[in-house]
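Protein record
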Amino acid sequence: MICETVILLTYYYRQEDRDDGILRHIIGAFCPTYLPFDLYLYEPLKRIFRRVIVYDFLRRRAELGLRAMNDEVLAVVRKERPKYVLWTSFYDDVRNTTLEAIRKEGATVVGWFFDDEWRFSSYSKYWIPYLDYCVTNAISVEPRYRQLGARVIRTVPNTGVAVDVDWAHLKERYDVAFLGSIRTADRRWYLDEFRTNSMSVDVFGEGSGGYVSFQQMLDIYKTSRINLNFSKTGAHPWARQLKGRVFQVCLAGGFLLTEYAPGIENYFELGKQIICFDSPREMVDKARYYLNHEAERRAIARAGWERAKGEYSSSCMVARVFEEIAEDLTSGVRNGNPAAGLKLTINARRVLATYHQEWGRAQIQENDKRGLWEDDLALALLNMPWNTLARFYRLLALLPWSARHAIFNGLLRLEKRRFGVSAQHWIILRSYVRRMIESLLRRPRQGYRG
């Protein structure tokens, strides 16, 4: 036990936040997956440090507003004098100026990043100058962090705790199961391949069987003969990434049949601890094979479980991260900081502008009378002055509540009339079209040798 204090700046570790006033708009738009950071980070930190303070910056932002929440974060740091401040990155809630001020107070600031396979260029790299350490689970971007002078530590996606499994008396309820959103990337197309081949899949999550609790999720993983995982992401469907579900399934003792993601072989032995596929046809063929070869399937599931519980539980991963930090702090070696000269690209500005714009919209739509929307819409326009939606919401806020309510209901009906396609799917469709056009433009002309 280390006799130090740690402050964990985190968000959305309570499922009830999904139904909470302003927060439900933000969580629905930007954080569709429930993240039990109390299990992933808080409990492991308590095993290492004498005192761990949790600060839910998303909930406090909804309660206080952006400016007051950042002031409160700094006040907590000054009062508690922590050794470390661990910030689980999201968007632009805890401001870069706040992180910089925390460092000046003497705390070591650690930024924990997610989805760096597609977020590094438009988000993560711009935070390097304000952090002492960056934690990522993306193997491919680790060198890019180092090129920008970051002290980076690689870990695995959010994992969890190992589930006790009685392998001799294990009762399985489902043949093939998938737990997650079927609206993401090409998952529906993959799942339809089972129906085409007269095989059933039990699906749980957004767009199908509805949300399940964290404990129910573990039970499903444990009692399914085959657990599916897909590696593509929503707004960036061409990028494959290592998902936390890979480790969650194995920690629960489940058999994992996963779409291949670059680097996954660094964590599990393919063919012996987990099974991978690259196409719908291969997925169905392997599912059918392992349903008919129970002994082989159970041996693979058990091998994956033993590997995961020995190396990839949250306790193991968090302990490893802070061991590396402690060793580095002792060495006293410091790199330069080329990232300090980075300027936000238009795409990076658009990401931040959209986020603040949606906070402004949520506050106006929920009839928040404190005027907190003004700060958010001002930041949206600061990042993207041509943001017409932010200007529209500014005008909308001046109308009586009855008029605003009618307009928001009209916008919602208009959204639903998009042939039943959600805004997220329009983003994906536009991304596909844009990449197709870009690939055609980059294609060498006939007779040209590059």
Remarks:
- The radius of gyration is 23 Å.
